[in-house]
Design brief:
The structure holds two protein chains of two kinds.
Chain A (H helix, E strand, L loop, with lengths): L6 H11 L7 H25 L3 H4 L3 H11 L15 H5 L4 H10 L1 H8 L6 H21 L3 H4 L14 H11 L6 H4 L45
Chain B lengths: L2 H21 L5 E2 L7 E2 L47 H4 L4 H4 L48 H5 L10
Antiparallel strand pairs in B: 1-2
The chains are: A mainly alpha, B mainly alpha.
Chain lengths: 227, 161
């Protein structure tokens, strides 16, 4: 058993495990504490830096496609001047969920490096797949990022049109559907919606029909595949 | 009649309005039925943009061929190559859940007169004909009367032959 661990590793472990010879206990504890503060502060600062809109639209893929589309919608321009920035909808606000999303986003760095959507044509061709990822994510977390601002408790349906009030009452308040089921493409242009039934239709009850992505699928993987 | 009398007569139609307007000390106004009565050189603030009518109540057509107007908000509705958001409620399949009026089957007919299974491409762009309304009051009142109000007389109500 012992023979299998290489000599260099065994030596490193011995150094690590033995008490220090020259450095004082105070230096090691205080130094470790300060280094921890510096590391943690730096980590969170870097994390927050990547969570700003200026960072998101630093890439031309985001700047000239999705950001331009978003500028015309009500989440950018409206009467009260409150607006949503990219991370408000696309990054979870809770720390653990945020870290999980950031780890997923490392694939987006890969895409950036290899130019997966570096032209308009490539972006348009991939739009359905990219949209499906977001629909699936929001479906799986019950539209959490919508609900960070729009809560069902604060929603006064008497201020809504009769049509919207009726549909919210029937589908949203009963928990039968979540925001993204009906409100797709509210901040960006829609992809080809062939085979994606609107949330208020009976067709979206069909487990095969909705967003064909494993993230949104509650059953074990292998069920609804991407159509 | 001498020639110079004739010349004076010819000038008269131009002279009279000029004299009349000379009595009017106000600056000349550009009154046109298609513009508000404002002075030509004045800079006027634009009138406020009136809000859309979004009360979800159907509006009667003024004449049978009129495309019905849209009584709800249509901001950011996408009618693109990828998707027609109007048809997510108004197509035949989805009218039951949302209680929206279905597009009439005249929209299924293509230009050769063939009835298709769905909305014909020439009828795809809904808002070329169907438009939302605002609360703006028309500057020029409309005196249009529909056929019903023209043919109906108090004497033959309900007994029109």
């Amino acid at each position: 058993m012992k023979a299998r661990i290489p000599v260099s590793l065994r030596q490193a472990w011995r150094t690590f495990a033995s008490p220090s010879r020259t450095l004082s206990l105070g230096f090691l504890t205080l130094g470790g504490f300060i280094a921890g503060v510096v590391f943690w502060g730096g980590f969170n600062t870097a994390l927050e830096a990547t969570n700003r809109e200026a960072f998101c639209i630093g890439c031309h893929e985001m700047q000239s496609n999705v950001y331009e589309e978003m500028k015309q919608t009500i989440h950018f321009t409206n009467r009260s001047g409150v607006r949503a920035t990219c991370p408000d909808c696309h990054v979870p606000h809770q720390w653990t969920d945020k870290i999980a999303r950031k780890m997923q986003a490392s694939k987006e760095v890969w895409g950036k490096i290899f130019g997966t959507i570096d032209t308009r044509d490539k972006f348009v061709a991939m739009r359905r797949e990219l949209a499906e990822h977001e629909w699936a994510r929001l479906k799986a977390n019950n539209s959490l990022e919508c609900r960070n601002c729009h809560s069902a408790e604060s929603m006064d349906i008497t201020k809504q049109g009769a049509r919207a009030a009726r549909i919210h009452e029937r589908y949203l308040f009963t928990g039968e559907r979540t925001c993204i089921d009906c409100h797709k493409g509210i901040a960006h242009r829609l992809p080809d919606m062939n085979g994606v039934p609107p949330g208020w239709s009976e067709a979206s009850d069909d487990p095969q029909a909705p967003i064909g992505h494993w993230l949104a699928d509650s059953r074990p993987h292998g069920g609804a595949a991407v159509p | 009649m001498r020639p110079h009398h004739l010349a004076a007569l010819a000038v008269l139609p131009f002279l009279v309005p000029a004299m009349l307007s000379a009595q009017n000390t106000e600056p000349r106004r550009l009154d046109s039925p298609f513009r508000p009565p404002v002075n030509f050189v004045d800079e006027n603030p634009a009138p406020p943009i009136p809000p859309d009518v979004t009360d979800d109540r159907r509006v009667a057509r003024n004449y049978p061929e009129q495309p019905p107007v849209i009584p709800h908000n249509v901001r950011d509705y996408q009618i693109t190559l990828n998707n027609n958001q109007c048809l997510t409620c108004h197509s035949r399949r989805f009218t039951e859940a949302v209680q929206a009026p279905m597009v009439s089957i005249t929209h299924y007919v293509d230009r050769e007169g063939q009835t298709l299974g769905g909305v014909s491409p020439r009828r795809y762009f809904c808002m070329q004909c169907h438009v939302p309304q605002t609360t703006a009051q028309p500057i020029v009142p409309n005196t249009f009367k529909d056929l019903d109000s023209l043919v109906s007389r108090p004497s033959d109500q309900g007994d029109r032959r």
